[in-house]
Amino acid sequence: MSKKQVSSGAEKAENLTRKKSTSTKSNQTKKAQPVKDTAREKKAKTQHKPAKTTKKKNKVKAVNEKKALRKEAREQRKLEQAKLRAERKQKRLEKKLEAKQKRLEKLAAFKQARAERKEKRRERKDMLKHETKEARIERKRSERQARLEARVAKREAAAAERQARREHRLKVRADKRAERNEKRHAPGFGGWLAAVISLGVVTLALGSMLTYGWIYMNGMHEDVAAIHTESLYELNSVVDNLDTNLSKARVANTRSEQVKLLSDIAIQSEMAQTILERLPMESLITQNMTAFVNKMGDSAQQMLYSVANGKSLTDSQIASLQYMYETNGQLKEALNELTSTADKDDMLDMLKGKKDGLMISAFDDIQNTPVEVPSEIHDGPFAENTDKVSAKNLEGLEEISAARAEELAQKYFADYGVKSVSCTGEVNAEQLQCYNVTISTEQGKMWAQLSKLGGKVVEFNSYKDCSDKNFSVERCIDIAEDFLTDLGFNGMKAVWTSENGTACNLNFAYIDDGIVCYSDMVKVKVCEERGIVTGMEAISYVLNHTERSMPSASISKSEAREKIHTELDVKGSRLSLIPVDGGERLAWEFYGEFGGNDYYVYVDAKTGQEIEMFTVVGTAQGRALM
User: Fold this and answer.
1) Cα separation of 446 and 463, whole Å?
2) CB 586 within 8 A of CB 553
3) Which of 508, 536, 389, 525 is nearest to 450 (CA)?
4) What residues contact 380, with CB distance under 8 A and at least 6 apart?
5) How confident is the model over 334-365, as pLDDT tens digits?
6) Residue 156 confidence (pLDDT) above 70
7) C-alpha angle 231/293/286, rounded to 5°?
8) Which H helix or E strand runs over 508?
9) Is 490 helix (H, G, I), strand (E, B) or coil?
10) Residue with the larger pLDDT of the pair 582 and 539
11) According to the per-residue pLDDT averaged within each range, which of 193-202, 227-236, 251-260 is highest?
């Protein structure tokens, strides 16, 4: 059969088979192409991979280099800082050496000057030794006449100076009036010429007056220096007499002798105070001496009143006499040395304001010696601090009624076997207002004061006999602490104890972050026979206690220790907040012994200044709890 004779169905099948085969080849060709492309891409990626690794290594290398540079820079800064510190240290050492050399030179010059003055003093003593009685009388008469003439001349000069100032003021006023009149009348050239001539005449007269006054006052300085030098010798004589009378007063036993000696001490103290006030120097230089002399005179007067009223001197007063004798002895020694070397020229230097002169230096030395009079304390430091004018601890509290005060008293003293409580009145003081409450118990009556604001116990007392000692001081402290806690006085610590017979007296102060707040004080009395609190006084606490932002110390304890007297045998120390001039200051408290007396010394924790000092008298059994 020929091709033309093939059926159309077979031909269609053959064509379909041919198309399918062609389509399959085409698809295989298309599929093979992407596989080749993928292979190339992988090859390309493989070829670029080493480039990325190199970039990463370069980045790590750069980071390492930066770190190395920073480290090198830090090392360089450290070296520079060490070099600067070494240079500063070297400069400090050089300054110290230079200051030390200056001190040595100054001391050598001072010793040389003192030796020369001693020699002059010795020559003067030799002259006085060989001087006849008639010559001495004549010399003293001449000196008195010279002093009198100097005083008269001084008064006349002062009067002349006042007259000159008055005339000058009148002249100035007249010139001003004339000038105003001339301005109103529009003066011409002649008026201006007259004004200029008048001004020149006034200027010339004023200049002449000032020149004469300077010359005259310069001469008067020497006379004034002589007067003050004599005052210094007079002060030395008074202090010598005080030394003698204080020495006798310590051992005098008869009332008549005590009256005589105490009268002399009081009078001589007043004389010393008057002389100190006459000396031409700043009050800061003599304030410690003046304070001691004032205190000595007051103490002598109080003892004199007691003896005059038939009483005997107490142990505290005898201890005060001993203290005054020892302190006055230090003043006597210092003044004797000063008067043996000082003369009119030294006083003249002081009048001219020379800070490195003998007089100023000597009084500075006296000021820095332990001659200042400490306040005498019998029941602990700052035990009488009630200077505030508002009750800080009661601010914002609700005012209670008298009936509520009775309820609170019943609650506070429930352990005392309370039978009845009655409010007997009110106390309206400037600082706080209280209810007076009387409490009847099984063992007798008690008396208390409760604040109208808040109903807090301000004061409490009972009259209970204590004849035996059944409780130790340590146990009394525990009893008092429990009593205060029950009344709401938290955070309190005993800072002072003393025994009076069988009564244990305790001072408690508030402790804030380890710092003793002396302003917030509560005093408690415990009966050592029964082991109960028989008295309490919390006025200082009520007036001062509040939430504080406690300051921090700028100087260390060792630095503060260097500020106080080196001979003080320190037994204990701590940080404390003390009342000073109506405020509070953070201070380092040092408790120690010197010359047989116990002392409290307070050094400002910021400035390093010695700001307060106490000495313990009349409490042989009293002790501080450090």
Assistant:
1) 7
2) yes
3) 536
4) 495, 496, 498, 507, 622, 624
5) 777 776 666 656 655 655 555 555 555 555 55
6) yes
7) 60
8) strand 503-512
9) coil
10) 539
11) 251-260
Measured between alpha carbons, how far is 27 from 347 in angstroms, rounded to an integer? 129
Task: State the alpha helices, DSSP H only, in 342-415.
Answer: 344-351, 358-368, 402-412
Predicted pLDDT of residue 256: 79
* Coil/strand/helix, residue 503: strand
Q: Tell me, what's the pLDDT at 232?
A: 73
**Element holding 560 (H helix, E strand):** helix 557-561
Which percentage of the chain shows pLDDT scores above 90?
11
Complete DSSP assignment for 421-447: EEEEEEEE-SS-EEEEEEEEETTEEEE
3-state secondary structure of 475: helix
Beta strands in 224-347 (DSSP E): none
Sign of the CA dihedral running 383, 317, 295, 286? negative
Rounded to two decimals, the pTM is 0.44
Per-residue pLDDT tens digits for 304-328: 877 887 778 876 677 778 878 888 8
Burial category of 340 from C-beta neighbours within 10 Å (exposed 0-12, middle 13-18, buried 19 and up): middle
What pLDDT sits at residue 181? 65
CB 593 within 8 Å of CB 572: no
pLDDT at 580 > cutoff 60 = yes
Q: What share of the chain is helix, strand, coil (3-state, %, to 5)?
A: 60, 20, 20
More confident residue, 496 or 18: 496
- State pLDDT tens for residues 293-302: 877 887 788 7
Two structure tokens written together for 306: 């007691």
Q: At a CB cut-off of 8 Å and minimum separation 6, what does 7 contact? A: none
Task: Show Cβ contacts of residue 22 under 8 Å, excluding neighbours closer than 6 positions.
Answer: none
Q: Of the candidates 503, 507, 483, which has an alpha carbon nearest to the alpha carbon of residue 494?
A: 507
Phi, psi of 285 (to 5 degrees): -75, -30
58 CA to centre of own chain? 66
Tell me whether strands 532-537 and 503-512 are parallel, antiparallel or unpaired.
unpaired
Task: Tell me the C-alpha distance between 479 and 474, whole Å.
Answer: 9
